[in-house]
Each structure stands twice: as structure tokens, then as C-alpha cells.
Design goal:
By secondary structure, the chain is an alpha+beta fold. It has 17 helices and 17 strands. Helices cover about 35% and strands about 20% of the residues. A 7-stranded antiparallel β-sheet has the order 14-11-13-12-16-17-15, sandwiched between helices. Strands 1-2-4-3 form a 4-stranded mixed β-sheet.
Length: about 450
């Protein structure tokens, strides 16, 4: 990049919002678990959609690619800069519109954190439904771009189900503004639906019009010990009958142990005395504890209310962080039909090297597993391919909520098939003919760099 281009960028966003110093760039060049890293000549921090559009136009004219980044909590390298791309940080796009209590909607800037959005909605007696452990850092723009899921998908669906409209900047710097949020519209293609999950490859999302839900203040949770993963799956049919079911989380014994060791707390149940643990959460306008008490009548489990429930969620939310302290794992986010979960987990354990530590947790109702294998060493690449192929053979998906990023670009065509994959490429070429936006994500076009495992 030339000094003239740096000067243009500073004119657009201000001197202090173009970061070229290596130390200042560093936190933007590595993902939060330090699995993926890259380099960028500069980090640009716009504060409005107009500034984003101007930055994109200037970069496009200079032939410099752009990688957009939100809270940088991704796990597949999709927001880490590559091939000399400008890192476009959207964290200053923090505008939050008034809560529309009639439409049950709100407009949020791409840099608004999920936690800030939830608190804003709750001040008006409503709530934002998508939730996961990184809520304090993860942003609306990143959640839209990856179609984030989390723990409440069983009740409210993924991010796609919450998006009523989007504002975004295309590769040529033009602005799409579809923030009306009309619940019924049949006027041609719905561009917001196209952009959700596109991982910054088709446009830079700058704001979203989002659906809100009632704020269910009364909550109760339970941790249920099952003899096996098969028994946990069989329990699902009963859980789905609970009138206020809000989340169904799976923690294999090793995952519960790792989280409790990291937090320095005693497990609520002995991990050695179960084959799988199911965390059930109910939320309602009135106290839902009775339905969980009835559920636990003939099961091994503990009821968690108030601070106990918060402690249970704290354990669940810290599993990923706890695993990160053990080394850089082989990390896979996959889903299969729930009836195939036990088969997949058995295959993973059989395939992993004897010295490796297999730690699995996830979202039971969606058949979504977060697979972490620490200490696979040189076997990591072959193990990854074996697991992903098994997932496809079982009728599953290679990514359930983390996205493709750069980690799984070589598997996307196998997942989608040549026709659907070709259609996706055609859309990319139509909207971004020069491969300006997030090159190397979804479609391989740039070298990828991943940190070596440490144990």
C-alpha cells in the first residue's frame, strides 16, 4: 500500500482510526483463541456507513482487498486478514435505535455487541433471542455474517430468523439500505436473506433490523445425567414437550470436568458417573420450575435456580476458554441428525490418537457438536478429514454455526455439491467480480496460515 492510500484513508476516518503500528495491529491480526493469524498493512475503523462505503471505494480503486471484522470471536479464521488486505474494523458502528415495542424490532449497528443489544431490548421489556458465551465481545455484524446460533436455537432459530432487514456496502462502495423490517414483503429477491451467512464475501454488513422476543424473566434449569449419549438423545422427545423449553445443551463428561477445573469449582454432579450430561433451561413469564421438577422425578439430575443456574451457565460458557488453556485443539463445529450423534462420537474417539484428549459439547436439539481434540499433533489433518467425511456420510453438515471461514474452504463443494456450489460462486462473481471482499473465505483464493498445535 502506498502512502497516498494511507492518506486517503486517514482523510475518511481520521488520523487516529488508521492503525499502521505493528503493536496496535496485533490484536486484530489474531483470532481470540490464537489459532489463526495474518498480517494487514493497516486497520481502518470507520464510524458510519458513509465512511465504510468511502473506504471500500478507495480500496477498490487501489486494488486492495478488504477483510471486515467485528468482535473477532470467530473460530474458523474468517475475520483474520490475509494477502495484504486492509482490516476493516466495524467496532465503532455502535448506534442503537429505539426499541419498537409495536413491531418487536430494533435497528443495531454492526459493532453493537450481543450483550449491549440484549440489555437495550430488556430496558423496554423485550429481549434479543440469539445468545452464546462470547456475548460481551461478539457483534451484530459478525453474528449476521456467520448466521450465528448459540443455545436458544431450539426455541427461536438462528440469526437468520432474527434478521428483518439489513444495511450493507457492496464491493463497489454502493449502499444497500433495507432496514424497513416489514414482516410481509414479496417484492422480488430478499437481499438480507442472501447476505446472512455470507461471511463478508458479498457485502460489508453495517446495520441490521432485528426481531425481538418477550423477555422471559422467570427461569429454571436442570442438569440431567444420562447413562449414555443414546439415552440423552432419547430424552429429547420428552424435553420438547416442555412448554417453556429455552435451551438443550449437551456436555460430555470431559467437557464438564475441563470447565470446572478451569473455574476452580466442584462439578454439580460427578462426571465419572454419567455417559453424557444434558443441560435443560426453561424460561417463561411465570415460574417454570414445576415442569423441571416433574421432569426430574424419574431422572438423575439437579435443579438449578437463581445463582445455581448462573453457575451452570458459567460452566457451559467457559468450556471453550478452558480448552484453550490446554493447547491449540483440532476444533470442529459439525452437526448430524440427532439419531446419528452417538455413532459420530464413537467414530471420533476411535479415530483420535491414544494420547489425544477428546472434549465434546454442543447443542443437543440441533445435533450440533463442538469437537475439540487436544494433542492430536501430526495426525490432526488426517483426523479432521476423517471426521468431516463421516459427518457428510451421516447426512450432516461440516459447519453448524461457526461458518466456513478459511478453515473449511476445501470442503464446501463436497458439502453443497457441484451445482449449488457453482451457483454460490456465480453470486460471488456477480456482486464482487474482482474478489475484493474477504478473499479466501468460502472460496479458496489465498494462502491460509494456521498456528501449529501446542499439545
Amino acid at each position: 500500500m502506498s502512502e497516498a492510500l494511507f492518506a486517503e484513508l486517514r482523510t475518511i476516518v481520521g488520523q487516529s482510526n488508521v492503525l499502521t503500528d505493528a503493536d496496535m495491529r496485533a490484536t486484530y491480526e489474531n483470532d481470540w483463541l490464537r489459532q489463526w493469524d495474518g498480517e494487514t498493512p493497516c486497520v481502518v475503523r470507520p464510524s458510519s456507513v458513509e465512511e465504510v462505503a468511502a473506504v471500500v471505494r478507495v480500496a477498490a480503486a487501489a486494488g486492495v482487498p478488504i477483510v471486515a471484522q467485528g468482535g473477532n470471536t470467530g473460530l474458523v479464521g474468517g475475520s483474520v486478514p490475509r494477502a495484504g488486505a486492509v482490516l476493516l474494523s466495524l467496532q465503532r458502528l455502535t448506534a442503537l435505535g429505539p426499541v419498537d415495542t409495536l413491531a418487536l424490532q430494533v435497528t443495531a449497528g454492526a459493532g453493537v455487541t450481543i450483550d449491549a443489544l440484549q440489555q437495550h431490548a430488556r430496558a423496554s421489556g423485550l429481549d434479543f433471542a440469539v445468545d452464546w458465551g462470547a456475548r460481551a465481545t461478539a457483534t451484530v455484524g459478525g453474528a449476521v455474517s456467520t448466521n450465528a446460533g448459540g443455545s436458544r436455537v431450539v426455541r427461536f432459530g438462528t440469526m437468520r430468523a432474527q434478521v428483518m432487514g439489513l444495511q450493507a456496502v457492496l464491493a463497489d462502495g454502493s449502499i444497500i439500505d433495507e432496514l424497513a423490517g416489514l414482516p410481509k414483503e414479496t417484492a422480488g429477491l430478499h437481499l438480507p436473506s442472501l447476505l446472512v451467512g455470507s461471511e463478508g464475501t458479498l457485502a460489508v454488513v453495517t446495520a441490521a433490523r432485528l426481531r425481538l422476543v418477550p423477555w422471559y424473566r422467570e427461569t429454571a434449569a436442570a442438569l440431567v445425567a444420562c447413562d449414555s449419549l443414546t439415552d440423552a438423545v432419547l430424552l429429547l422427545s420428552r424435553l420438547r414437550q416442555l412448554p417453556n423449553l429455552d435451551a438443550v445443551e449437551l456436555m460430555m463428561p470431559e467437557a464438564l470436568s475441563v470447565a470446572c477445573e478451569f473455574l476452580g469449582v466442584k462439578p454439580p454432579m460427578d462426571p465419572r458417573e454419567a455417559g453424557a450430561f444434558v443441560m435443560v433451561d426453561c424460561a417463561a413469564l411465570t415460574d417454570p420450575r414445576d415442569e423441571l421438577i416433574e421432569l426430574l422425578a424419574d431422572l438423575r439430575g439437579v435443579l438449578a435456580l437463581g445463582n445455581q443456574r448462573e453457575a451452570l451457565y458459567r460452566m457451559r460458557d467457559h468450556i471453550t476458554i478452558a480448552i484453550g488453556t490446554l493447547g491449540v485443539p483440532l476444533k470442529l463445529d459439525v452437526a448430524v441428525p440427532v439419531a446419528q450423534l452417538d455413532r459420530l462420537v464413537r467414530l471420533i474417539h476411535a479415530a483420535a490418537p491414544g494420547e489425544a484428549r477428546v472434549i465434546i459439547f454442543g447443542h443437543l436439539a440441533e445435533g450440533n457438536l463442538h469437537v475439540n481434540i487436544v494433542g492430536a499433533g501430526d495426525a490432526s489433518a488426517a483426523l479432521r478429514d476423517r471426521v468431516l467425511q463421516a459427518v457428510l456420510d451421516l447426512g450432516g453438515t461440516i459447519s453448524a454455526e461457526h461458518g466456513i471461514g478459511v478453515a473449511k474452504v476445501d470442503w464446501l463443494e463436497r458439502q453443497k455439491g457441484p451445482v449449488a456450489y457453482g451457483a454460490m460462486r456465480a453470486i460471488k462473481k456477480a456482486l464482487d467480480p474482482k474478489n475484493q471482499l474477504n478473499p479466501g473465505v468460502l472460496f479458496a483464493s489465498a494462502p491460509r496460515r494456521r498456528r501449529a498445535a501446542r499439545g
